[in-house]
Amino acid sequence: MSKIIRVAIDGPSGAGKSTIAKAVGKKLGLDYIDTGAMYRAVGYKTLTTSIDPDDAAAMQQMLDSTEIDFSKGDIILDGEIVNDKIRTNEMSMMASRVSAIPAVREKLVELQRKMGQTKSIIMDGRDIGTNVLTDAEFKFFMTASAEERADRRYKELIEKGQDVSYETVLDDIIKRDHNDMTRKLNPLKKADDAIELDTTGMSIEEVTDFIFKEVTK
Ligand code: DC
Q1: Of 16, 68, 113, 201, which is most buried with the most CB atoms under 10 A?
Q2: pTM reported for the whole predicted model
Q3: Is the CB of 139 under 6 A from ligand 1?
């Protein structure tokens, strides 16, 4: 592929965006950028360095000395691979919380835009089509019922050996949907020019195929 193409995938927690974005990226040779992982990394650092997210000055100072990057599919926070550390239920809630802080969004959105300037990418998140890459060549908005999303995430967490109940996961998904859709800054919203896809009852292959066909048609 000679021309740079950017594919934006937005949608609520647990809609399967990252699984699909990874698969489509592999098929099309696009670098996958998981922007949720970037918010999780900031949430992780906030928690592990005991910074109060409401302390704007402390948050800004922390952000100024924070480096986030991707390398071969790993997320690197200040030189450390944090893939597993950021995938707990606690970090999901923390990510949702810090993602409402203007300084956090400013820093991460700038980084994300830079990542989309030099190479073809597939990026997933909440505000990619509406804010980060408004001129992306392809935009998708993936949804699924809260119950199905909770079921998928619950199974994922149990497989990783985490001790959670389905009710807690569903409850957290509903809370996160609310946080993500009602925050003032760049809330989760379908871009007017995005293709909407409800994946309830669809398999990973079916969704991957749908997006692959749209991008290559
Ligand atoms: O996709 P995820 O569950 O890993 O995202 C974690 C949190 O980060 C989610 O609750 C909302 C936030 N987020 C965001 O505000 N904007 C993005 N582009 C990606 C994620």
Answers
A1: 16
A2: 0.93
A3: no
